[in-house]
Each structure stands twice: as C-alpha cells, then as structure tokens.
Design brief:
This protein is of the alpha/beta class. It is 52% helix and 10% strand. The strands form four sheets. A four-stranded antiparallel β-sheet has the order 1-2-4-3. Strands 6-5-10-11 form a four-stranded parallel β-sheet, with helices on both faces. Strands 7-8-9 form a three-stranded antiparallel β-sheet. The chain binds arginine. Arginine binds next to strand 10.
Length: 589
C-alpha cells in the first residue's frame, strides 16, 4: 500500500499543478499544530518568491482546487500562506480497513530490491561470562536485524565471538596447572583426544578470572600464557583440541543465554575463523604497496586530508609478526565478502571503539577488501549506567553479570504481578519473564543507541509511562476485550471499519495509518527508538479511545463490530512492532 503521506502529497501535487504552480512546492508534512489540523503544506510561502505574489493568494488558489476533494474534510489557506489539512473520516477509515485486509503485514510493502546486509553484534568473549555491556549489542543488533528483515532485506547476523588471543592461552595455562596429566599437554600423544571436555561451564567461568589475576602478579605465569597462545596459534594439536572444548562448552552456554533474551544468530563465527585468511590478505596488502614497515610494525596509513583530528595508521602486524584485533576484523571482512557478498555490514559495538572502526573501515576501503558500493556502518552504542551515573555495577561494585541482572528484574516483575492478584505460580513466573524482557529491551531501545542511559529498575518495570510493560499492558487490554466480545457469542466476521465516530477514534486511526512510514524511517536511520516512539503514541491513542468509548456496551451491532475490528488492527500493529523490538506479549498480566 502507498504510504498515507504519499497519497496526500499526490493530491497536493495535482492541486499545485492545476493552480499553475510548480509541483516542487507541494510538500506535505504532519502538522506541528495538531490543534488546528493534521497535515500542512508550507509551499505557497516559497512559491510566492518565484511567482511574485502574496503567499496567501497562492495558498487560496491551491485550496480552491482541493475544495471538492473527497480525501479532505478541511483544506484551507490561512495567513500568511499555510495550507492546513484535515483528512476526511471516510478516507481514513477506508485506508485503515485496507491495511486490515492484509493481516500479515498491514499493507507495509517490502523493499523492491532487497539487499544482503550482515550485522555483527553480540560480540561475547569465549569463557568470560556475558556482562551488561554485551546486553546492549545483543538487544540493539537483534532489533536492527528484525526491522531490516521486515523491510524484506536478507539480514545475516554474526555473533563474532571473541575466541582468539591471550584469553585462550591463559585458560590453557591454568588448566595445565590443575590437570597436568591430561593428554592435551603431552606432546608425544598421538591418539584421539577425549570427546568429553575436561571442565564444566562453571569451572570455565572460574578458570579465566583466576588465570587473568595470576598473570597480573606472576611474570612467569604470564610468559607461559603468552607461549601457550603462540603455540595454539601455530597449531599445536593438544591446544587446538582444548580450544574446541572451550568453544563448545562456551557456545552451548551462550546460546542458552541469548535464547532467554530472544536473540539468535545466523552465524556463530568467531575471531578464530578469520585466521586462515590473514596470510594472503597481508601478502596482497604488501604487494599492492599499501602496507609498509613503520618502527618494525607493518602498517597501512589511513589518514585523510580533511581529518580534523589525528587518525593513526592501522597496524596490521606487530614487529614480532603477531596479528591484532585489527587484523582479525580485516580478515573477517575478507571471508564475509567472499562468502556472502554483502551490500552492507553493520557493526553494533560500544561507541568507545569508534576510532578503531574508522581505521578498520578506511583500511578495508583503501586496500579494496570491500567493493566500492559495499557500505560499512558503525552503529556505536552508549553505556548503560546505574543511578549514580556511572557504568552499571553490582552492589559490591563488581562487573554485573547479565544473568544476575535478568534474575533481578524477573524477580521484581514477579513481585509486581503477584501483588494483589492470584495466578498460578507457573503462570506468574512465565508472565514475569516475558514482561521483564520487555522492560529491559524497551528501556534500552527507546533511547537513541548512541546515547548513554540510566538503568532504572523502578521506571523500566512500571506499567505506566513510556515502558515495555505499558505497551504489553495495552496489548493485553485489547486481548481481553476481544475475548469478552467472543465469549458474548458475537463475531466481527465480515465487518468493516466505519468512519470514526469520535475524535479519539479518528486520532487512533491516523496513528495506525502511520505504521509503514514509522518502520521505514526506523530502517533507514538504523534507529529502533523510532519504533518505540511510534508504539508509545499508538498505545496512548488506543487508551484514550478506550477511555472515551463504551465498546462492550455499544448497542449498534455494526458500530461495535467496527470497534472490534479496529482493536484487532491496533493489536496487530503493536504486535508487529514489538516483534521487531524482540519481545512479545503474554495473554494475561
Ligand atoms: N568481543 C569484543 C568485545 O567484547 C566485541 C567485538 C565487536 N565486533 C567486532 N567485529 N570487532 O569488546
């Protein structure tokens, strides 16, 4: 379906043409004076200069051409030269009825030429527990992916595990201290390694911090870890086998954690998967003359004349020949281009890595790792702070584990749900889980990604205000009315949405009609917060309509059926949107 604003603009364009004025002036925008009108066109003011006439005179000419147009209830010229528009109730009802005919997508069109877009998000580090910093990447990335997918694009999410580097050597070293006798450490061993890993996930999560702490105090221990890392990277058999155990145990646990967040990835690639592409990539950079030696290291210059601040060269290999985080990200681009030919790669990473990604992107472009028209996008997010305005911590001041945060919020939600209500324990737990997820995700996504925000348990879990639970509560309210209607033995089968019977009903319809424009701009600006802003307005419009309208007591059957159909449409629109945000609504709460 065409977007509402486009339909209005088309009419305005013809009116301008009929009035003998250039069509470029016919731009229509939502009104910034909703008390006066719904849409407006300010083109007569600009046109006045070209035609050397008073703006109001031109506006009146255009308004005259719209006088008999069925689309408008009001098309009037007001001083100094605005065109104020109100849509006719009949037109708006017909528009939303047409949306409802397509229950699946509510008339939102898919992109005519879909793109392949890879999205690098999550970024957990193997063997280290997920902490709140990883939460934002997962939540935002998942939503950006779902919005793109709804628009019809081929979206491929890659978790990009941090599974390379010193952390692996540290784990191996600590394991060797604890279990020196296992075959992985015996260099003469040629048999098969055990299929059972020599540790559990909780052991693994304890091994890493222990090893990391030791390495800071004990120089020899650190040396050993660096040596183990080196040998692993050189392909030492026993260490490779340990790496796959570490990966398996860790990935199984990560999958479970992400599943609880309603987050999933198409690809579970890691930094280690990029290693095979490094040698050829480096050779080519050298052969093409892009990489040169500077102070022993191999670097590619990436500064540009227009830079206002210093952009240091991108380091490809350290003086000892070791690769870096950079090198891995560049080689990752190599396999992504080779295997998927993406039109765009979006990185959802902490904004403190912005300079780093500027270097990587410039280097990839300069050395032609990407096609000229492949976009590389950095979607940097801000920090989630506690009430003290500092990065969110545990009460003891430690790094907050993601699982702890989720447990706390589930508990709070459970308490709220069981307050003065009686539901079975199981249902209350499950509902609490679903609603708590909406609280966390909406609390995060309703802010512009690049901004820091404050995690406020009290506010996020509230059923009132701009929160996830408020949106779910609104959906549940509609589900309950629809059920009551059905239980009364009635059916809205065959009903159509009638022209609004009240102002609040018309306002609701207008808000619904803006669905596809809202999703489109959220997609174009990679901005899930736009979906949040849209559904908050929509939920408000629905609740306003609900409070002013006696739906169940309505005696005219066709009017009541029309209300019911409008509720179904509203519910569907909200459900489509929350699915794009990555959460869902319970049946009751
Ligand atoms: N593992 C990294 C971290 O925890 C994030 C990875 C971001 N993605 C990337 N392609 N570098 O900081």
């Amino acid at each position: 379906m065409k977007k509402l604003l486009d339909l209005i603009t088309e009419e305005m364009t013809s009116a301008f043409a009929e009035a003998g004025l250039d069509e470029k002036y016919a731009r229509v925008t939502p009104s910034n004076r909703p008390d006066l009108c719904e849409y407006q066109c300010n083109g007569a003011m600009a046109a006045a200069k070209e035609y050397k006439k008073a703006p109001i005179e031109l506006a009146e000419q255009v308004a005259g051409k719209l006088a008999d147009n069925d689309m408008f209830e009001l098309a009037e010229a007001v001083k100094p030269g605005f065109l104020n528009l109100k849509l006719s109730r009949k037109f708006v009802a017909a528009y939303v009825e047409e949306m409802m005919q397509d229950e699946e997508r509510l008339g939102c069109e898919k992109e005519a030429s879909p793109k392949t877009i890879m999205i690098d998000y999550g970024g957990p580090n193997v063997a280290k527990p997920l902490h709140v910093g990883h939460l934002r990447s997962a939540i935002i990335g998942e939503s950006v992916k779902r919005i793109g997918r709804f628009m019809g694009h081929n979206m491929i999410g890659d978790v990009h595990l941090g599974d390379w580097g010193l952390q692996m050597g540290l784990i191996i070293t600590e394991l060797k201290e604890r279990q020196p006798g296992i075959p992985y450490f015996d260099e003469t061993y040629t048999g098969e390694y055990p299929t059972e890993p020599p540790f559990t996930i909780s052991e693994l999560e304890e091994i890493y911090p222990t090893a990391s702490a030791k390495s800071k105090e004990d120089e020899a221990y650190k040396e050993a870890a660096m040596q183990a890392t080196y040998e692993l990277q050189q392909g030492r058999r026993g260490y490779q086998a340990l790496l796959s155990h570490i990966l398996n145990v860790s990935v199984t646990d990560l999958k479970k954690n992400y599943e609880n967040l309603n987050v999933s990835f198409e690809l579970w690639k890691g930094e280690s998967d990029a290693q095979p592409d490094i040698p050829d990539m480096v050779e080519k950079m050298k052969a093409d003359g892009y990489a040169h030696i500077s102070e022993g290291a191999l670097v590619v210059d990436v500064k540009e004349e227009t830079d206002t601040k210093e952009i240091p060269p991108c380091m490809i290999l350290k003086s000892d020949g070791a690769s870096l985080y950079n090198t891995t990200d560049l080689a990752t681009i190599v396999w992504r281009m080779r295997d998927y030919h993406p039109d765009e790669i979006i990185y959802v990473v902490d904004k403190r890595q912005e300079l780093y990604f500027t270097q990587v992107f410039r280097c990839a472009r300069k050395t032609h790792l990407v096609d000229e028209n492949t976009r590389l996008t950095f979607l940097g997010f801000g920090t989630m702070n506690g009430k003290d305005g500092k990065p969110f911590k545990t009460r003891e001041g430690g790094v907050m584990r993601l699982s702890t945060l989720i447990e706390n919020i589930n508990e709070e939600m459970y308490r709220k749900i069981t307050d003065n209500r009686t539901v079975s324990e199981d249902e209350a737990r499950e509902t609490a889980r679903v609603v708590a997820l909406s609280a966390v995700k909406y609390g995060d996504l309703s802010n512009q990604a690049s901004k820091d925000y404050m995690f406020d348990m009290e506010r996020f879990t509230s059923f009132e205000g701009n929160t996830g639970p408020y949106i779910l509560y609104t959906i549940v309210r509609m589900k309950s009315i629809l059920n009551k209607y059905k239980e009364a033995g009635k059916s809205a089968e065959g009903a159509v949405i009638e022209p609004a019977h009240s102002d609040s009903e018309k306002a609701l319809m207008l808000q619904i009609a803006g669905l596809s424009a809202a999703i489109q701009s959220a997609y174009e600006e990679t901005a899930p917060h736009k979906v949040c802003a849209y559904i908050y307005e929509l939920a408000n419009a629905l609740n306003h309509f609900y409070h002013e309208t006696k739906i169940m007591a309505e005696e005219r059957a066709d009017v009541q059926a029309s209300y019911i159909r409008l509720l179904k449409l509203t519910k569907r629109a909200l459900e489509l949107c929350i699915d794009m945000l990555g959460f869902s609504a319970p049946d009751r709460m």
